[in-house]
Structure prediction request, 305 residues.
Amino acid sequence: MELFEAIILSVLAASTPLLIAATGELVTERAGVLNLGVEGMMIVGAACGFGGALLTGSTTVGAICGIAAGTALSLVFALMTLGLAVNQVATGLALTILGIGLSGLIGAGFVGERITPAPQLYIPGLTDIPVLGRILFGEDGFVYASLLMVVGVWLFLYRTRSGLIIRAVGDNHVSAHALGYPVLKIRLGAVMFGGACAGLAGAYLPLAYTPFFVPGMTAGRGWIALALVVFSSWRPGRLVIGAYLFGAVTILQLHAQGWGVGIPSQFMSALPYLATVIVLVLISRARAGGSTAPAALGTVFVPDR
Prediction:
């Protein structure tokens, strides 16, 4: 039971940054913008988040710094794609390359430093319950915030007028513009929200997952978050299933190596990304008759008046 509890706690921790980043990207894509720069925003958020926490001694300040860093990079993306109507795919890839280089520059002085990780919730009586106590009432604030974020995004997209407008912009920006909605402003807000979530997801890694910063510590999690949005069919509720599924694959491959399973360690390390590719292929085949993606996803919009 202790091993089971340890595995579940590890899965929750590994899934949280995926869930946070994917939730932000889902809102961005629902508005019709495809931002492939999630990985770059995450790694810059990790560097700035760790730096903020190290210099101030506050996990909250570190999280705010990560959010600010991700938002700042998203504004660069918005300037190019919304302001100058540059291709979104090319801009997102360039943003990832920029973020990786920028994070190395920002975090160069932080390598080797350690901080106190984010505190975990403790409720006397409840947290002490065997197995379920620590799983339900013993996590750090990021885990609970990620789940609340998913619920909030679901309510916003499907239970508010503003959410309906965002979905309308993502499905047909020309009609939304004709009805008088400010398409570019709506997309700017969605891109900034996605950037803030990516920055927070990146900051979670050094603030709670591992209490130190190393270059490239996101290790492709931004790309997995992008795949999760497709896996979930652009629906917030399914993000939770997808994030915990991929988090479980990541953790189980580590435990498999520890158990001495006779499989090359290189293959086990590649397993989460291999699972991502397989899932995307299966989903693409299942949707041969029609796509559930926003109809205007990735399409540049230039207002005619």
Q: What stands out?
A: The chain has a mean pLDDT of 89. DSSP finds twelve helices and no strands in the chain.
